[in-house]
Every structure is written in structure tokens, then in C-alpha cells.
Fold each of these.
Amino acid sequence: MAKSFDFGNAPGHLIRRAHQRSVAIFMEETAGFDVTPVQFAILNALIDQPGEDQVTLAGRVAFDAATSGSVIGRLEARGWVRREPDEGDKRRKLLWVTPEGEQVALEMKRPVRQVQSRIVEPLDAQERRQLVALLRKLMAGADGSHQR
């Protein structure tokens, strides 16, 4: 029996490595935009749901609500997101993508599609579908929406 832990077959380790690869590919393909994967997700989420509050948005993009404020702040500083207090509850901040932010997100669609292709490049079509299905099942279980 080996004395050390077998990281090479540990799901957590493999997921971490896959995530690192995913982010590296994203940054490579989108280098001209200087946008992180989370920033891209936020821009797209706000295109789909303009005027959403910051906490709901953080949940939709699966990002920590406390940390999302600084990410949104960077997008706001670039002029890509507009943040306003909710008239009904001044503590809530509502968010919109600016026309410039929407244009950037639209220009990034092609490179981001390329990112997705490169991530699963070693897999055949059936394995790609299987990977996505397994990841969705894994996350559904983590989100509590999967029945045991």
C-alpha cells in the first residue's frame, strides 16, 4: 500500500487541474479583451436579466456574493456595467450591462465557443456529451436539487 495519497485518481484534484486548464485556455483565447471567466459570465447573465440585483446575480453565475461586488466594481469602472440603488430598497443594488459592455460580451462569444471546444478537444462527441451530463449531475447534487 502506498504511503502517499493517490492524487492522480482523486476527483477533487482532477477537477482542480481541469479548472486550471479551463481558465488558462479562456485567458489565452480572450487575451485581447482582458476579461475573466466570471466577468464574462456576469455580463452575459445581465444581458439575459437586466436590472437584476447583485445577490441574485451572484447565485446565477455561481459566485460568492461578497466577492462579486469587487468583480462588478471592476466591470463598472470599465464602463461595462451600471449599478443603481433599488427604489424600493436602497440597500439593494440593481445592475445593467451598458451598450459597451454588451458589445464586448457579443464580441467574445466566438472566442469563448473556441474555449469550450479546446477544453473538450481530447474527447470524442459521445464523451463530450457524457462529460457535460456528469458535470451537470454532479452540480445538481451539490446544489441539493438531486434526489438520492
Amino acid sequence: MEEADFRRILDRLPRSTAPVILSGIGEPLMNPQFFAFVDILAERKTGCQFYTNGTLLSPRVQKAILARSNVFSVSISCDGAQPTTFENARVGADFGGWKRSVQGFVTQARKQRGRALRVGMNVVVSTQNLAEIGDILRLAAQLGFDNVSVMHPIPVDGVAAGLCPSPEALAAVNEQALLPLGNDLGLEVTCWFRRDGLPPSAFPRCLQPWEYVFIRANGDVAPCCALFGSDRGAVMGNILEREFAEIWHGPRFQEFRRTSAFGTNPLCRVCPYY
């Protein structure tokens, strides 16, 4: 996406100072226009956050992030506590180099921005790292993080489904085990784990379809981050072709919200946020 395209999408949205998440499919720091997008948001007095795998946190990139006060949150993904596990999940990555870069960034972020910039670790539990979750929390503490988000994988496609541990294996990774460990390590641990059964009638556990939209570079509007890269059926409309209000209040979005609220939306049923 070019700067002009980004501005065009922003111009189609209602004027707001609500923060923007500059992440979707893939690594956002690979986009050569990334910091231009951050600066465009700053022009509009809009804050932003993003998710990164941390492999591109060079000194130059770290400096660029820390110099932009409208970046208020950076979440760094970690796929393993051992070099083999980590490098198998991130082909071409160097675990030792990643640790040095991430630790340096966390240290500088604290020194320069204090609590104005929230830097957290994000962990998706998979068949590859299931046995290392405790060690990943210990690694987070070692690297200087103070918060970690742990979640089950979302099987939105065949690749993701293949990485999902069995329900029996996932049962061993639970809040009762992780929260005390996090507390001992001085970490704030947030768990997003899939729940069995249906939620109470008309009691949505996830408010994303009511509070957010996720927009692809081509203008497609999705109802939540978990479905951002999944089935085309999750597209509510295209903001470059229709007015935002028409999409937001349209029948497709309304039906998605209704089935989400009542627990009958098949796309929501596989999501740990629900």
C-alpha cells in the first residue's frame, strides 16, 4: 500500500481520534511505508499500535519507533524459548540476535518513553511450543517485559488448524498454572483461551464487531482481527466502493453481530476471544 492509498482509506472513515492498529497479515515492519503511515496518523492526532515478530528491530528501526510519540503500544511475538523451536517457527530467524534486539528495545523504550509506550510479548500456543510455555514466560521476564498475552491458536485455515494442539494437550496450559507463574516472575499475564459450550443468550463475550473494523489494503472491511486473513465470507463490504456508514449499519454486519451475540456464528466459535 502506498501513502496515497492509506490516506484515501482514512478519508473514507469517520473523523475520530480512536487508535489505529497497523497490523494484519504478515510483518508490518517489512512495509517500506510503515513509518510514513505512522506519521500520517500523527498528522491526524491519532495514536497507533502494532504487532511485530521482532526480527527486524534493528537499531535504526528501534530509534524510529521511539521517536514517534503517537506509537503507544508494541506487541512482540515469541514462538519458543529454545533456538530450535523459535527458528523452526520463524524460518530464517536467529534466536540469539532476536533476544539481543528485543531486550535492547525493551530497555530503551523504558528509558525514553516510560509507561507511555506499552511493550508486551504475545504468545500463540501451538504444537511446536506447547511444552515451552513456562520457559517462554521466564524468557519474557529475562528480556524485561512486564506483560505477556497467551492465547490459543485460531484455526481459520488448514495451516493454522494443523498447529492447534489437541483439547487434552491444551487443557494443561491453563490460567491456574500460568497466572501464578507470571506473578512469581513479576509479569502481568493475560490468557485468551477457548471456552467450551455456548455463551449465555445475548451475552457476547467479544465486542469487536460492535467496536472496531479491520480494513485490508484493498479496502475490504472485516469484523474482527481474528478473521482478518480468513474466509472471504467475513468481508462486510469494501470501503473504497461503499460509504462506511452503509457497511457498518448494513444487513451483513448486523447479521454477523446477531449470530455472534447468540453463539451461533461458526466463525466466532473457533476463536479464543469469544
